[in-house]
């Protein structure tokens, strides 16, 4: 049966989280497993205990990575990126659907993983800045407080991005997996959720679409 999605003639946009959505697991998880002992994970425990913001904890964690850049690049190259993202991005281009990738992480590792695709498919990346040196670690910088997508807790407000697209009158398809994705999921028109975000959406009664990987998103967008 052909699916019918009512977009009321609105311009469609696709907003995707990066870590755990485009990749299998968070960059934070990969780096924690590889580089951080129990002591190094202290900033994260302080975040979980409500004593630090998400941004500050990530910043302190990532600054502790002090390996030669080649070994960090090797770790990044081993992170699994969904094999169907090109299909989805190409389809969005064909259908004139603007693509945004929005992340509470940073652009250092995102660009290393999919930098060429960002250019090839004209994708707008909204995230924190990241710069690596063996002396200073992976230094993360939030946008300026005056930036319209700035958020005190996670650096980048995914909610503010989706909200501004909605205010422009766009029909927003959103994909995510984690806690920072819950607020934007509440106001998106269509939500692809998995892992913790799926549980939260179910608890809150927010309708979600089947999402194991980007093949599900491809099948959905193909029909609209
Ligand atoms: Mg995520």
Work out the helicity level: 40-55%
| Content-based structural category | alpha/beta
Total separate domains: 1
* Shape by Cα distribution: globular
The side-by-side strand order for the widest beta sheet comes to: 4-3-2-1-7-8
Order of helices and strands: EHHHHHEHEEEEHEHEHH
Radius of gyration: 17 Å
How is the biggest beta sheet arranged? 6 strands, mixed
In round numbers, the mean pLDDT is: 95
Annotated CATH homologous superfamily = HAD superfamily/HAD-like
Which CATH architecture is right? 3-Layer(aba) Sandwich
Bound molecules: magnesium ion
Q: What's the CATH C level? A: Alpha Beta
- Output the number of helix runs: 10
Q: What's the CATH topology label? A: Rossmann fold
**Relative strand content:** 15-25%
Explain how this protein is built:
The chain is an alpha/beta fold. The protein has one domain (12-27, 78-222): 3-Layer(aba) Sandwich (Rossmann fold). Helices cover 42% and strands 19% of the residues. α2 (42-48) runs antiparallel to α3 (54-62) and α5 (85-94) runs parallel beside α10. The mean pLDDT is 95. The site of magnesium ion has 7 residues, from loops. Residues 17, 19-21, 176-178 line the site of magnesium ion.
Task: Provide key terms for this protein.
Rossmann fold, 8 strands, binds magnesium ion, two-stranded antiparallel sheet, globular, 224 residues
């Amino acid at each position: 049966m052909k699916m019918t999605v009512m977009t009321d003639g609105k311009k469609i946009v696709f907003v995707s989280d990066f870590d755990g959505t485009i990749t299998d697991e968070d960059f934070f998880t990969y780096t924690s497993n590889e580089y951080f002992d129990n002591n190094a994970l202290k900033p994260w425990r302080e975040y979980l205990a409500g004593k630090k913001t998400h941004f500050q904890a990530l910043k302190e964690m990532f600054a502790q990575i002090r390996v030669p850049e080649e070994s960090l690049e090797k770790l990044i190259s081993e992170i699994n990126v969904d094999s169907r993202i090109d299909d989805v991005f190409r389809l969005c281009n064909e259908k004139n659907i603007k693509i945004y990738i929005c992340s509470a992480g940073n652009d250092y590792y995102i660009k290393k993983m999919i930098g060429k695709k960002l250019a090839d498919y004209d994708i707008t990346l909204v995230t924190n800045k990241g710069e690596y040196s063996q002396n200073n670690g992976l230094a993360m910088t939030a946008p300026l407080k005056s930036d319209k997508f700035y958020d005190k807790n996670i650096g980048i407000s995914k909610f503010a991005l989706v909200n501004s697209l909605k205010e422009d009158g766009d029909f927003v398809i959103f994909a995510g997996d984690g806690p920072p994705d819950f607020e934007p999921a509440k106001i998106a028109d269509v939500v692809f959720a998995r892992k913790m975000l799926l549980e939260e959406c179910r608890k809150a009664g927010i309708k979600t679409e089947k999402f194991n990987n980007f093949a599900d998103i491809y099948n959905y967008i193909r029909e609209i």
